[in-house]
Design brief:
With about 450 residues, the chain is of the alpha/beta class. It has one domain: Glycosidases (TIM Barrel). The protein is built from 16 helices and 12 strands. The strands form 3 sheets. Strands 1-2-3-4-5-7-9-10 form an 8-stranded parallel β-barrel, surrounded by 5 helices. A two-stranded parallel ribbon has the order 6-8. Strand 11 and strand 12 form a beta hairpin. The protein is globular. The termini are close together. The structure holds D-gluconic acid. The site of D-gluconic acid (GCO) has 11 residues, from loops.
């Protein structure tokens, strides 16, 4: 063994409410945009949906036990806004509050630190009906929701992220329509970008006014963008792509400014104090990272974003190893991304909130020998270790994901879990990578 991590490094897994919980209208839960979107014919591969997902709502104890059996020290999960506030605002649904309260207690009893994400894409449909993120009121509603979370769980949970991957849900939700709510409307998109940023700032403020001990930040998916060739057009396209995918949330939140070329799009939505509210001090950055992005000059660069999600493989080079998502395996990009945050964003505390890979794992003789996933983890964790050695303040690693689950527009086909789930019976079976993770945790390295 030669790769050792710092003492007290957090080892965990990440999930998201819509992808695992199911129970889509149990115990008073309201409708979210993902309920609506998946129930619309033709939006999701094989018309699948998360109505049942992997039934974590009813099986959370079993799932926590699986984490505790290998001594995970952290678990990152998101709350469904519509369980807590079925209509997005107004009356609180006590049963929703209770569900997450029980989950948190179960985690704490098992020495697993809970990390909450407030918003992993499942906006209350009622709020969407009033314009969703294009409406400035939504930012205030988000802050109200955040304060309810801080009041109810802040005594037991101190790490809270406002959003998961705002670039993904705004671009895919409002530019190419590939994800909920499924629009292609650039004005809606620009307004949404600003209001999500604002909601982040207002959310931080609201939570801090309730509890000053919380550690707060945002989870961003960042990926170094590299041009496909030295053609100046490709180089220019890459800058643009980088702006949309990496900077329009990171820079306002962590630097207090919009990229110059984007400013004109949001100017009309900006009010005086907004940028100060948005850029108030974050306690950490949550980094989700899967691959780097190769960019070709393309006037439809934003619409082509879908390719980066894994539906097509337009920009991959030949002879590069790919995962089932058609994502390239490039651990150096992970190292570079972490170091960029260290060097250009003021050496922040970093939690690695997602990293992982999909493979077509199958059970053979009762075993799932996902050795490719183990190799992936070894490579990516070596990159993490190198970044720590080079001074990055990385405090923990959450693998995506605990167990196979509903992969958004791609339905149930792409398996990312350490634990295999039979989507018919919902039986959980640990893969070999789960046992690799067990040893990793035990040795604090590999
Ligand atoms: C995202 C999300 C996860 C995904 C994972 C694999 O990045 O899209 O945070 O919900 O399932 O990244 O695609």
């Amino acid at each position: 063994m030669n790769i050792l991590f710092p003492k007290n490094f957090l080892w965990g897994a990440a999930t998201a409410s819509y992808q695992i919980e199911g129970a889509f209208k149990s115990d008073g839960k309201g409708e979210s945009i993902w309920d609506r979107f998946t129930h619309t014919e033709g939006k999701i591969k094989n018309n699948e949906n998360g109505d049942i997902a992997v039934d974590h709502y009813n099986r959370y104890k079993e799932d926590v036990k699986l984490m505790s059996d290998i001594k995970m020290s952290a678990y990152r999960f998101s709350l469904a806004w519509t369980r807590i506030l079925p209509e997005g605002k107004g009356t609180i649904n006590q049963k929703g509050i209770d569900f997450y309260s029980q989950l948190i207690d179960e985690l704490l009893e098992n020495n697993i630190k809970p990390l909450i994400t407030l918003y992993h894409w499942d906006l209350p449909q009622k709020i969407q009906d009033n314009g969703g993120w294009s409406n400035r009121d939504t930012s205030n509603m988000f802050a109200e929701y955040a304060s309810i979370v801080a009041k109810n769980y802040g005594d037991r949970v101190n790490l809270i992220s406002t959003f998961n991957e705002p670039a993904v849900f705004t671009i895919h939700g409002l530019v190419d329509g590939y994800m909920a709510p499924g629009y292609a409307d650039l004005d809606h998109f620009s307004a949404a970008v600003h209001h999500v940023n604002l909601a982040h700032g207002l959310g931080l403020k609201a939570m801090r006014s309730i509890n000053n001990n919380l550690e707060l930040g945002c989870v961003l998916n960042l990926s170094p963008c590299i041009p496909c060739s030295d053609d100046p057009a490709d180089i220019k396209g890459t800058k643009l792509y980088d702006m949309y995918w990496n900077r329009i949330f990171l820079d306002p939140m962590y630097k207090g400014l919009y990229p110059n070329n984007f400013y004109k799009n949001v100017e009309r939505y900006l009010k005086d104090a907004d940028l100060n509210i948005i850029s108030q001090k974050n306690d950490y950055i949550g980094l989700n990272h899967y691959q780097h992005t190769r960019v070709k000059s393309d006037p439809d660069y934003l619409l082509k974003a879908r390719g980066a999600y894994g539906n097509e493989k337009p920009f991959n080079m030949e002879n590069v190893e790919l995962t089932l998502m058609n994502w390239e395996i490039v651990p150096e990009a992970y190292y570079n991304q972490i170091m960029e945050l260290k060097n250009k964003y003021d050496n922040p505390v970093i939690y690695l909130t997602e990293n992982g890979c999909a493979y077509p794992d199958i059970i053979e003789n009762g075993k799932i020998n996902d050795f490719k996933r183990i190799e992936f983890y070894k490579k990516y964790l070596s990159a993490v270790k190198k970044s720590i050695d080079d001074g990055a303040d990385v405090r923990g690693y959450m693998t995506w994901t605990l167990m196979d689950n509903f992969e958004w527009a791609l339905g149930f086909e792409k398996r990312f879990g350490l634990i295999h789930v039979d989507f018919e019976t919902l039986k959980r079976t640990p893969k070999e990578s789960y046992y690799f993770y067990e040893n990793l945790i035990k040795n604090n390295g590999f």
